[in-house]
UniProtKB/TrEMBL annotation, chains A, B:
InterPro entries for the chain: GntR_C, TF_FadR/GntR_C, Tscrpt_reg_HTH_GntR, WH-like_DNA-bd_sf, WH_DNA-bd_sf
Superkingdom to which the source organism belongs: Bacteria
PROSITE patterns, per database record: HTH_GNTR (PS50949)
Lineage, uppermost ranks: Bacteria, Bacillati, Actinomycetota, Actinomycetes, Pseudonocardiales
CDD domains listed in its UniProt record: WHTH_GntR
Species of the source: Pseudonocardia sulfidoxydans NBRC 16205
Keyword Magnesium listed: no
Domain HTH gntR-type: residue ranges: 10-78
GO molecular function terms attached to this record: DNA binding; DNA-binding transcription factor activity
Coiled-coil boundaries: none
Presence of the UniProt keyword Transcription in the record: yes
Name of the featured protein: HTH gntR-type domain-containing protein
One Pfam assignment: GntR
Amino acid sequence: MPALTRVPRGSLTDQVIDQLRERIVGGQFPVDQRLPVEASLARELGVGRSTVREALRVLVHAGLLESRQGDGTYVRARHETDAALRRRVLKADVINAYEVRRAMEVEAARLAATHRSAADLARLHELAAARDDAAGPESYRRADRALREHVVECTGNPLLGDLYRGVVDPLRSAAAGLVDEVDLVRDDPARPETADLVRAIADQDPRAAADAAARHMDAVLRVLTVMLQAAPIRRHS
Amino acid sequence: MPALTRVPRGSLTDQVIDQLRERIVGGQFPVDQRLPVEASLARELGVGRSTVREALRVLVHAGLLESRQGDGTYVRARHETDAALRRRVLKADVINAYEVRRAMEVEAARLAATHRSAADLARLHELAAARDDAAGPESYRRADRALREHVVECTGNPLLGDLYRGVVDPLRSAAAGLVDEVDLVRDDPARPETADLVRAIADQDPRAAADAAARHMDAVLRVLTVMLQAAPIRRHS
């Protein structure tokens, strides 16, 4: 595979870009952290401040960093796929984003039923129990989210995982109020979809797993549609 | 929604970046076209060559442009989502990428059956006829591709369309030989999935449409798995 973003070799700026990018991807500069100031980065990397400034600009445009006026430069995303997807999803219609999420939840459920290991299943049962025991909406939402992310992990498909997070995370952070309400409605204990999903993955029944995930997402989409009709202004774009 | 990639205002480089980006997104600089040389861009935009050089560097790193040593700068992708997805998909396992493609083809079929207009359906029938009449593998593949992309268009979900192309296009261009062979196997006239898909979309039957798309992708994945076992070296990563 050829290097896809080859730039003229030996450029100092490119080396600085690569070093900063590595620290972001590697997690030494975690998301939401403020970067050291230009002068300190320049000293540490042994280059001029203008080189650092140019490298930061590239990484801001790539969506990895965010420059907050009068405050500093913050890490916004760990991967460029995340950053690009985030921008794209935030411009999308909320219903469209949920339809994409449905595509991935259903396929994840199907693949999880096929590929989950015994350890995956033990963890799934733990997460389902934590979700059942959650006290209050905030801890319920956290537990529900952990369970669904684990189902995606069980597929053994990291590309699906990246795309799933790339679509779901910006929906959570951008339309937080909206998504929270939808998630609360999901909490209805009369709705058995999630228990069905866990059981189907345990039974290694891909069809039943996909079906449970589809029923869950259809319920979420129905709630979302009603809410958007009541408050159309909250619909993206 | 706040601007997500805000950079210090008034920077000349940022203005040049925005102008070049607009021409790429707007299609005035189409994919695979070579850009005018630095001096000519600088003259046209009324800025210095070093400003142009810095802007080009940012767009190379964003994946929109590609600098080919001793040749020039070419447009590599029209959108940053495309560019970032392309990089990610090219690093992924081929089977994983096809699993993601399956998720999107199935959901697209389901939504197309629900949302397609009368004009969409007329076009779908045209494309299906062109596929049936295709002479030779190359024109068959082109027709098959046009039909599947049209199904995604029928959903009225542009986010799904972007992600679909972002996953499928790099698979086509990177693993061209492999994908071509898979596509040829798809050509088996004894396999009725595509006719079923078209009929289900015509009948506005989302369940039958999703089922036909799923059977099609399962057949493709079976072929792909056998081929990768025969030639494991062609598997990505």
